[in-house]
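Notes for week 9. Today we move from apo structures to complexes. The key idea is that a small molecule is not decoration. When we ask for a structure prediction with zinc ion present, the ligand SMILES becomes part of the input, just like the chain. The input block below holds both the sequence and the ligand string. Read it once before you look at the output, and try to guess where the molecule might sit.
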Amino acid sequence: MPVTQAAREPRLGREDMRRRTIRKLNYAGRCWWCGAPASSAEHKYKKSDLVRDFGRGPYTGQSTLNWNDLTSGAQRPVQGPNSGRVKFGKSMCARCNNERSRPFDLAYAQFSDFIGANQPELLRRPIIALADVYGPEWPSRRDLLLRYYTKHVCCRLADEGFEVPADAIAFLNGGPPPTCMAFDFTVFGEWVVITEAMVERDGHFGFVGMSELWTSQSARTRVVEALEGSLFYRWLHFHWLYDPSLRGFEDPFASGTLAPAIKYAGSGPEEADQLGVVIRAFSELETETGCDADQITNDPALRARLEQLVLSRTGRGLPNP
Ligand SMILES: [Zn+2]
């Protein structure tokens, strides 16, 4: 006898099945949270993070800021912290994006201010105790911080043309965390090294970014079964998964201490250290010769000198471009 969907999951009614499906939805100018006309665009990256790292703008002349599309390689200027490039499309009403979510925004701002103020220590030991960030109020602030990240995910889903799950909206309204989502944080080892080297060179270093949206689809039915994505602030990467078959919210702050795993895109810490040496060798040559990084790379004599500098410090040459 063929095994049918109903036979495998006899307890699921039609309503349950509907709730477990990720559906495409065009909100057509309506707020995904309350349904009022959507007149407001949420920042993809918190405005206070942009101001902390890049200033109040306009980002012109010496303080040009570029937006890089990692998929296409396209590069576009960002005019200031309110540029459309750093925001989602208009998918919320002003009341939801301002008043209703202000406590979430404030909890996040406090969290990222803490990262900004304690970066040197955090780069050595990336462990954040919420009591250090929020004091004795941390359990309630933790919930608000999770709602900030949930709101980000909801905006992303609406922006990509997917329905925001009812569980997530219930959480924003004060209910329990969405069981269909999992949140996780990692520290990218290469970015720790890049940040340290750039701070040493320029006194500061900023980076914000978002991954592309990853979609898991059933090979047979093409139904979207899970979506995931990442939001990067400097070296701290927030990763979210939305999968209706999950049976409980994964909370990275559950213990009150965020202790993200350190991951390397390359082969490991040794390769990351090599990257730091390369960045420092570049800045040394830039100071010495007045040439910028592109000129050094394109000039055979300067490139040979760069190679020599790196080799003398690590015993290894430049990594392949
Ligand atoms: Zn609204």
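Residues 31, 33-34, 36, 92-93, 95-96 surround zinc ion (CB under 6 Å).
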